[in-house]
Amino acid sequence: MIKIGIVGYGNLGKGVEAAVWNNSDMKLVAVFTRRDPSSLKIKTPDAKALSYYDIEKYKDEIDVIINCGGSATDLPETTPYIAQYFNVIDSFDTHARIPEHFANVNSNAKAANKTAIISVGWDPGMFSVNRLYMNAILPNGKDYTFWGKGVSQGHSDAIRRIEGVIDAKQYTVPVEKAMAAVRNGESPDFTTREKHTRECYVVVEDGADKARIENEIKTMPNYFADYDTTVNFISMEEFKANHSGIPHGGNVIRNGFTGFDKTTKHTIEYSLKLESNPEFTGSVIASYARAAYKLNASGDFGCKTVFDIAPSMLIDADGDYIRAHLL
Amino acid sequence: MIKIGIVGYGNLGKGVEAAVWNNSDMKLVAVFTRRDPSSLKIKTPDAKALSYYDIEKYKDEIDVIINCGGSATDLPETTPYIAQYFNVIDSFDTHARIPEHFANVNSNAKAANKTAIISVGWDPGMFSVNRLYMNAILPNGKDYTFWGKGVSQGHSDAIRRIEGVIDAKQYTVPVEKAMAAVRNGESPDFTTREKHTRECYVVVEDGADKARIENEIKTMPNYFADYDTTVNFISMEEFKANHSGIPHGGNVIRNGFTGFDKTTKHTIEYSLKLESNPEFTGSVIASYARAAYKLNASGDFGCKTVFDIAPSMLIDADGDYIRAHLL
Questions:
Q1: Kind of pairing, strands A264-274 and A248-258?
Q2: CB B232: neighbour CB atoms within 10 A?
Q3: Interface pTM (ipTM) of the complex?
Q4: CB contact (8 A) between residue A310 and residue B305
Q5: What is the pLDDT of residues B242-254, one digit of tens each?
């Protein structure tokens, strides 16, 4: 049994917990939190709630730590720290800072003979792996990533910060016409507006100025101004009934050309349709925790990304089995 | 430059040649044939046509041999032989014999400090890799592979062997209704007939008995009897105009369930739409030839499959680049 520890018990931490529960070769030992551990109600029988500040005391009791903190401030600090004591996985997704984060985690993991895998999930993660396979196979081509239909937590948060808003959910929606063009083998240059629209469902206080709120949303720089945005004001009842889930998904599509004259066309597409973003992300992460465990056992130390991990490392089955059943 | 040799100059050999041409870090050195080498018209400038029976003389001039022989009789004999002298890739696809072939190639490659990768292409190959990722991420679920619309060489050959047939092309076509059900998250058990249909385009001799030929096709055991098959008799002109290509493609779809009660549904789909099966297969193989070269340089010897190869090995770019651009 691979002994797993989780740091952080938000949506992602709970998604990872469910994934560990569904993998028969893994066992959740503890959840570490910076809050009061006694405030956590952990679903897994026998798993402990412990203080994050004591984590290094458990270095001989846990094989892999799954760090479910936030990319903005938590992970750049905590993953390198944890890598001094444990094999560790995170889902770091601040793209511009990946080289720096990789270097920090790599030096600590190498010094401690630990194995770390950063930026695991579906984007970055499975979408990245697919972009790499597609680019390696079809070097002459162009790829596109579409996101959605799905909930953007960041955009939903941005709406909730507007005065008069009680709750809000924002769905990123790919433009069907754009996806159809790419699937049809065309390789256009899209503007931001041509690729995705944004649909907002907003619950406001009694008597709130809806026109002002709608305008504040639609003109918000970076988040909404570059998109065609629709704003729907709904009741709390409707919000709870129809918008309580966290679905997501998306598509990576590459058109490439082969042949001596580069005129033979091929289209590769990878798509995800997810009822729960954190449960799926947690499931991806659990399989990479297995890989970190196996790699560490084989003496392969330091920081990795999904690009460095052979598919066989991810599954609870040996080479004979996978060659017979999946090849 | 990675120096490539190709064994066999049929459709696949030519597809590999075009792929090597389109990869700037590779160079085709020679094509080896069991026919008279002077009969080959090789497209790549400066590449030599040589006798397969002399291949071991070139062991210091070529980095990776791509073996484009047939699975039925060629590859089981030639890949283990070649692995004594070269890093080697093949596209062995006789599923039941993979364990035996793997063992034979593995022992010879290990003894010679060479790296071999067998069963490379799209199925087995990219479809297999995707089945593995899907199964690792969503262990509770069920996956489906659909093939087509595309040309089955084996079925086309079977029709051509019927008396009175001049030429024929058989397309395997997935049943849209079955794919739609799976994409919709259902996990049915399909019969063979429910998943694919077979469309045949047949050119016959003047005065041939079409009713007999159609009946022989539709009742042919293993090839057609278990499918809904349509037979279209066409002229040689129409055959050449509309059925001269070798397109193919297909989809791997897995529905899986997460959460403590396994009720949250996710669908992962990987699909290919290929104008030329041999050019795409050749492109996949070229990227794995690069991996064999890199792995051999790092001292990783023996036989591998696509499951054992980290994605980063496939691309002509280093870790810093792929983390910055594809993650």
A1: antiparallel
A2: 12
A3: 0.96
A4: no
A5: 999 999 999 999 9
